[in-house]
Specification:
Largest sheet: 5 strands, mixed, barrel
Organism: Furnarius figulus
Number of helices: 5
Radius of gyration: 32 Å
Distance between the termini: 55 Å
Pfam families: OB_Dis3
Main location: cytoplasm
Order of helices and strands: HHEEEEEEEHHH
Subcellular location: Cytoplasm
GO molecular function: 3'-5'-RNA exonuclease activity; metal ion binding; poly(U) RNA binding
Structural class: alpha+beta
Length: about 220
């Protein structure tokens, strides 16, 4: 395989010129070649070992490998802060197993964002005629909020918050994105609107313009 060497140099190296940098790279390549050869021999020796307990071969036992050959692993022990809004846009459909007890109580919510898990939602949150004609809602976007996700379950549980409308249309898609990211897009209060100029059309006065830098 090709080998790429990244050289580290400071201002002193730069002052000494290109020849010094070239020598440094050559030395590093030679050192790497020697190290790789020695490591290959070492792996060849320790990769397969006989033990006194049995006559079989121990191949690639991780206990005998150097640390640089091991992949470190970790486990999440605590969630400090939940950054996701727990809201997602998606579609609802009936569960596949019609004979299960869960079929009578829940529907399946499939988020558009595949990073979000699929969610069981109560049938009480769905439209009244969803059970009789589920195909009529196959292209309707809904907002679902995740309320729980048990460790031993592949699916979360949640509640339908709102029906947005037909998928593919600008307004439902935009509203879904804003709700997913927790953006408040409600109307401004009367107090906020009173801060705006009341005499329209409003223009910046020449006196104010003189104090500003025009970035238009």
């Amino acid at each position: 395989p090709d080998v790429i060497i990244e050289a580290q140099f400071d201002d002193n190296d730069a002052e000494r010129g290109q020849d010094h940098l070239q020598d440094t790279l050559s030395d590093d390549i030679k050192k790497l070649s020697l190290d790789t050869g020695e490591m290959g021999k070492a792996v060849g020796v320790i990769g397969v070992q006989r033990t006194k307990q049995d006559d079989g071969l121990k191949v690639n036992d991780p206990r005998f490998l150097p640390d640089e050959f091991l992949q470190r692993t970790a486990k999440v022990v605590y969630i400090l802060e939940k950054k996701h809004s727990r809201a997602a846009t998606g579609f609802i459909k009936l569960l596949a197993d019609r004979n299960s007890e869960l079929f009578k109580r829940c529907a399946m919510f499939s988020p558009v964002d595949h990073r979000v898990p699929r969610v069981y939602v109560p049938l009480a949150d769905c439209p009244p005629d969803f059970m009789t004609r589920p195909e009529g809602y196959s292209q309707n976007l809904f907002i679902c909020r995740i309320v729980d996700w048990k460790e031993d379950s592949n699916f979360a549980t949640g509640q339908l918050s709102k029906s947005l409308g037909q998928a593919g249309e600008i307004e439902p898609e935009t509203e879904g994105i804003l709700m997913e990211y927790g953006v408040d897009f409600s109307d401004f209060s009367p107090e906020a609107l009173e801060c705006l100029p009341q005499n329209l059309p409003w223009v910046i006065s020449p006196k104010e313009l003189a104090k500003r830098r025009d970035l238009r």
